[in-house]
Amino acid sequence: MRIGFYICHCGVNIASRVRVAEVAEFARRLPGVVVARDSKFLCSDPGQEMIENDIRRLRLDRVVVASCSPRLHEKTFQAACRRAGLNAYFFQMTSVREQVSWVTDDEESATRKAKTLAAAAVQRVRRHHALETREVKVHPDVLVVGGGIAGMQAALDIANGGHRVFLVEKQTTIGGHMLQFDKTFPTLDCAACIGTPKMVEVAQHPEITLYTGTEVRAVSGFIGNYTVTLRRHPRYVKEGVCTGCGECAKVCPVELPNPWDAGLGSRRAIGRAFPQAIPITFDIVKKDRAPCQAACPAGINVQGYVQLIREGKIREAVRLILERLPLPGVLGRVCPHPCEERCRRGEVDAPVAIRALKRFAADRIGPDDLPPPPIAERPQRVAVVGSGPAGLTAAYDLRLRGYGVTMFEALERPGGMLRVGIPDYRLPPEVLDRDIARILRTGIELRTGVRLGRDFRLEDLKAEGYAAVFVAIGAHRGLQAGIGGEESGLVVNAVDWLRRVNLGERSPLGPRVAVIGGGNVAVDAARAARRLGSPEVEIVYRRTREEMPAYAEEVEEALAEGIGFRFLTAPRRVLSRRGRTYGLECLRTEPGPPDERGRRRPVPVAGSEFVIECDAVLAAVGQGVDLEGWGELPTTPRGTLAVDPRSLQTALPWVFAGGDAVTGPASVIEAVAAGHRAVEAIDRFLQGEDPAGLEAEAGRRFPATGEWTPIPTAVRRRERLHPPHRGPAERCEGFAEVELEVTEEQARAEAGRCLNCGACCECLECVRVCEPRAIDHGMAAEEIQVQVGSIVLATGYDVMDPSPLKAFGYGRYPNVITSLEFERLSNATGPTGGRLLLRDETGRFTRPPRSAAIVHCVGSRDVNAHAYCSRVCCMAALKYSHLLHEKVGPSTPVYDFYIDQRCYGKGYEEFYRRCQEEGTVFIRGRVAEITDRAVDPSEAGRLVAVAEDTLSGMLLRVPVDLVILCPAMESRRDAAEVGRIFGVNRGADGFFLEEHPKLGPLNTATDGVFLAGACQGPKDIPDTVAQASGAAAKALALAGRGAVAIPSAVSTIDPDLCAGCQTCIGLCPCSAIEFDERRRVCGVNEALCKGCGSCAAGCPSGAARVSHFRKEQIFAECDGLLNAVRAVGI
Amino acid sequence: MGTVARLEVKEGGCTAAIRGFLHGLLESRAVGAVMVAQRLPRKVLRMPALVTDPHRLEGIDPFSPCFALNAARMAARLSRRSMGVRWAALMRPCEVRAFVELVKLKQAGTEEIVLISFDCPGALPTREFLRSPGAETAESTERFLREAFSGEATGPELAHACRACEHPVPPSCDVHIGLLGTDGGSWLAVEGRTPAGQELIAAAKLPPAEAPDSREAALRGWIGRRAAYRDALFARTEAAVATIEGAAAYFADCVLCTNCRVACPLCYCRECVFATDVFEHDPFQILLWAERGGVLKLPTDTLFFHLTRLAHMSTACVGCGQCSNACPQGIAVMEVFRTVGRRTQQAFGYEAGRSLEEPPPLSVFREEEFPEAVGLDPRPAGG
Amino acid sequence: MPDFEPILIAFVCNWCTYTAADLAGTSRLSVPKNLRLIRVMCTGMVDPQYILKALLHGADGVLVSGCHPGDCHYRNGNYKARRRIKLLQEILPCFGIEAERLRLTWIGASDGIRFAQITRELVDKIRQLGPNRAAEVTALC
Q1: Among C52, C118, C122, beta carbon nearest to B308
Q2: ∠ CA(B68), CA(B104), CA(B274), 5° rounding?
Q3: For chain B, percent of residues with pLDDT exceeding 70
Q4: For residue B379, what pLDDT is reported?
Q5: B382 pLDDT above the threshold of 60
Q6: Does any CB of chain C come closer than 8 Å to the CB of residue B359?
Q7: Mean pLDDT of A727-739
Q8: What average pLDDT does range B221-250 have in this prediction?
Q9: What does the alpha-carbon distance between residue C10 and residue A1121 come to, in Å, rounded to a whole number?
Q10: Distance (Å, whole) CA A65 – CA A50
Q11: DSSP state, A132?
Q12: Are the C-beta atoms of residues B213 and B193 closer than 8 Å to each other?
């Protein structure tokens, strides 16, 4: 064995601490060493030639170099060996600079350590084997991640080099931060002017495939052969089809803060980041279905019509309501509004007054104001029995689906309980008539005065040729109170009585009336009685007020109308004299044990009898379904119609039933929901499908992410709309409606309180106006796989959120803004059209500032935030001072608080001088605090920057109107995750770590993955573009060669030693090992193996081994170290 | 517990009864072959044999206190590839447990083999057995069984491994032969623990029976005594190797013959890494080692060898004791492997031979585990 | 023993801890002279035999150090290393070799300072433990 040993002085880097000659001398005596030399710079040409010559002249078969880190020059010396005809793997390198001279304090120890490392390397190299470097093909295509200026530049350079580029951008447009900027320093050319042409070039380049709204999900493979999985998020507008005309945004009612404008401006739910966005295709911001809509039994698009009302589009609002509710006027009054309970505005102040808004819209749009929706006629006819809310809804839906519909009503007038149950002061008959008129106008036949069981039977309907029947006859039969005196007709049934009253019979009951019951009917009856001239009306209820089923607001109004309540009171019997009622005997009750539903059953207190004096007793103790005269359908124990809960289908397949007749007394909106459900089922039944199939809302899909538009932190509390009410005295005069109208301003203001939980509300106004039919609300995310040879990471940076740095008052004071916010203000496409304006408390823009302060190093060069310098702030600050002078006026005082002015770039210093000449006041000192607490009149109503001028040593208080913070550039929030996907480490600062700070600034630890721009560290545009072109060159070089030599340090398995236990297969992270059933041994697929050695360490027999990291090689290194330590000491 | 059947013990004792049972299995073609310990003509030791002819069972002697090798190795060889027929292996519990480990290490297959085991009374160290009078006779086995089950053993002492074995019954096998608690071995409780096992019992046409109720108690007593012995053994061994000096002395006589690893049913490597050129040290290297202290005992790497084996298979060690049996230098290898094996197996919540479901500890990993192993301050396990 | 200078062998992965060691060097931090690195591609290739070898042939302590969980260049090598270290930390103490002599740490590519700190602390701890006499004792046993 003939080993050559070489140690490098590295100038003085090594020689100043290590006695290199002595080390060489030591090495010369090591077994097998035939030559040992030291050299000033081994990596220099002479140094390398020396080694090459020795290999040739002295027939060396092994070479050891002790110098810098192998991560720096291993390849250099391997190449030298190769040139001299020696296999590169007969070379071993040890670091006596990073590992010795730079980290060891005294010369003696350093020299000893160097000797031990030399010995180790020499002993190891003896055990080396020749390895052939493996060549693998390089896929010609390249992936560029990030569409900012770095990504665009890299993509263009590579594409111009003739290679296909897949450019992936997470946002909906390319451009990145640079396109958000206004001007660029120091030349002040506008970012858009130099940026948009690049965007267009990218979009039009035949070699570039652009994926916006797309993220990289997974990367597999190795240099030259990467398989990348992309996830393309839906933008709900078809690229290529959308012409970017913008009609959709004009009609979109939803306004959202625009992230592109750093939240200062707003955009529509359908829209574009900014006018020059690439691609021009619009996009829709969607969150999960708004809770209000989710809460509505009928599924009304609440957020949608609320937003349309806010926009003043009342007709559109009503049209949207009608899609799920043919009775807007009715529900606008009597709906128990479950939507409001779920409204997230309640988390801020109070829920939006949704019902009042519905009523407002309904009242403004009469039956004839909207053209009836188009109807595609179908042959079949359907009969609807009952014209209450369920029947009306079903009839309307069926008609819109093209069926012929006949509605049968037992009473003389349609409406069911809406007409005969709810008193006029809550639901004026003309409102009901308007809604019904709108429904009938669709061409529905109405037959009144015909009663199922009395005038016809279901069979007759079938005979008449109705293909299906929907029975929604409600629950009109008032139940017996079961108290003494009832048999002798002394107890008036409230349900029947209300029906008579609602049909016009208005006979008073006497001065004193007792009403039994705690439900809505009881309250309705009581209030009706009050209106019929009974001054003393009392409601008698067995339980407590909390347990009353009646709506709280109804109870409130009843109280206001002077109606009395007796709780925990059980009526016993009606007391009468000669057939005339004079009192109601009652017992006190107390809450007893809970019943099966958990409600505490009231138990009468023995001996607590007492008498309520009254002239009439009304009983409202519940309703049942009136099945008198017909029994064609089976019923439940509760006496309601029995149906399949999903399809509402009865025992007779062609008969469906819903509403109170099935559920027992319930709310109007639930009846409407039943109508919808029934029609879905009947429709499928008539189409010969399974009626119980799930209903699908065509063309609409809210992504079920469970996440809604975040509640803005800045949102101000605002009073909820309370519609005016008629005074109690006045309303007891008659049956005039209690709740009064609201003005359009009130309504629109109230609608403005909506938080747009769902972002896009899916009102589909956009679909209506989109001529190219580019909008698809049902679009779903798609996964794409691409094959590439190399990857350029250009994922950019985030602007640090300064609000945690409380002293600067960001988020507290509207006129403390960040650099990015300033850029947007100053940008012609920004929220103010490029005018620099202050904001008032509400965030509205007002007047230009009279003075401004600019604060450097916010979160940079700050041990409590980021220790590093963000490198761009000084120049950006200068730019801002210039823009302020240019736009607000040359005399505007601008104060620039800096720590050091860093103007190192080309033309930067000149720009600094220019700004000085423009009169910017430069103050050297870190701002301690921004406050609005004035200590003298000059500071009143302004922001005060408190700082120490470190040059004069004076403490300053500078009052200004506007404060511009220059927050640090940070690594992306998702940098850790992205790093993991691409196998790229992050530095202590969070940015991606380059292979070497000087010699490998574009490479990463993963071969074939390169870095460009601010994802590697803060840098300005010129540096970013330069680095991007550099990365592009790296990718091109790789693709150009078409093949790449990859390290031969891969695993092999010795078939003579392998026992076939297959443990290695489970340990291999690359799935590179397969089991050969025939020979019962494992084998390594070298193409897949990355040489991690998991298999080798897990193989007891040593059959699996990593080339160049073989067990005997590590042992030899270990022995070498320990022998030498023994010999020379530590 | 599965179905229990009754195997009468008549003249000829347990061995004869088993012979009858196996005869039935072969005759009825329930199995095509049986692997079972055999007496050999003109020899003393019992060796495993593969019997295919029901009339060639006369020499079988499965209960003999002779344990010349761990038959799991043979069973593994025979089951690795298909034999073409279903066959049975009658093995000691420690052999069955070793077999289970070998299956997990892909050295053995389960498709055709039916595992039959029994309440193992243990065995003598091979040297002892060879020395014991009349060892070659069949009667010696019956005598041994009688003494073992009555508890009044008069003969030479069982091997340490057996006296410390708390697994006289294997955690998993297809058929188990119960000798304990069957009123002095008047009958054998044959239990089918798996469908395959129950088929065999059905094929042998054995009358069903109740599991002997006294068995559990007897077993508990047996295990109790062994566990006590085991713990003493652990304490003794721990003390012996507790210092590096003690440890080195313990293995000082090792000549690196690697017999222990050859005898070990779980050292499944084709060739021990210590026999590969990895350990072909340069003479100058050995010289350098010698120069350190001025003197170097040869062969080198002895302690290294045993520590490596511990690292490789202490988690799989079933404590059969064949290593000690095989050591020409009389080094108590088993003691160390069981003592350390208990620690390593506990550390990974693993028990060798317990189940086919548990993967060998070093063949898997989890992202969140063993925080105590990381960092400069060793925290208490699980801490 | 005050004048005892332990010798430590560290098996470090190329991607994280070796890079961190280089960084410590370029940052001119002081690293104990007692430390000797053996560079491997991944802690997942550290065979338990390497560690036994070092400890039986004169190392007073062994450090195995690689990437932080989740950062492994080969996805999960460090997890496998952790199991193997755990195994040896159970075995070694049985033979009078303290578990403290074998440590596993995660030191990321940018943790130059931590590398210097941790190695310094480790050397101090081993110094407290005193010399590992395995090599000396096994020379004649």
Answers
A1: C52
A2: 60
A3: 97
A4: 58
A5: no
A6: no
A7: 92
A8: 95
A9: 11
A10: 12
A11: P
A12: no
